[in-house]
């Protein structure tokens, strides 16, 4: 595959993986928790490096997953203690992210870890960081990591689809019929953590947050069926990656930033033109209500 194709494939995998995972965050009204986890996993990455002295993907995944789950746990703990959910997210997010920044500056300043890279990523380098088996180059490491995490997420969704669906739409009913809501909650947080760290190195926290929220929010405006929402969110993620890449090439700007912007523009278009929840359709419906009957 060409250099261009690898970048588009990497961005598309980020869009699909984050998009389908983010749908459940949107339905559970926990979108900003994705922002918190996408930043606090920096602490997990740094701790994994300090313990293992390695930047291998498996250590990063373990460290980020643990800290991602800790983030969800602390937010849940503060919320159940009477702190408002948005305040709880803000406290945990800023505290853990700040600790990660301090540890980077103190112990990992000379390593391929820095705050700017963590926020913005550098997808242009992913085609050169490849995996070699028996002397044969089998493609970029980011593609294999994202592909593996996508497979794991799809498998989890397939196995627990009913539980995810009921717990997302009606948690009280899920408790009543015996679904382990807390287990489903932390399973979902684990998915978010895995997805975040798999995307983190190549595209940075900003695009991860955009892809976790925007495709799902866009799909939510277009359908009332969960399985359709999952497919649409994946499609929006791919379109954002493709449009963003060619826009960045044309304008000579950040690829990750252009992909996030493309996702925002697609959402804006759907927000106006959606046949059921769109601004235009709502205005037309109001006009029909207020117009005099003939």
Automatic annotation (TrEMBL):
Signal peptide: none annotated. It comes from the Bacteria. The keyword Transmembrane applies. It is found in: Cell membrane. It is a multi-pass membrane protein. Keywords: Cell membrane, Membrane, Transmembrane, Transmembrane helix, Transport. Its main location: membrane. The chain crosses the membrane at residues 6-27, 32-51, 57-75, 87-108, 142-161, 173-197, 203-222, 229-248, 254-280. The keyword Transcription does not apply. Belongs to the ABC-3 integral membrane protein family. This is Manganese/zinc/iron transport system permease protein. It comes from Siminovitchia thermophila.
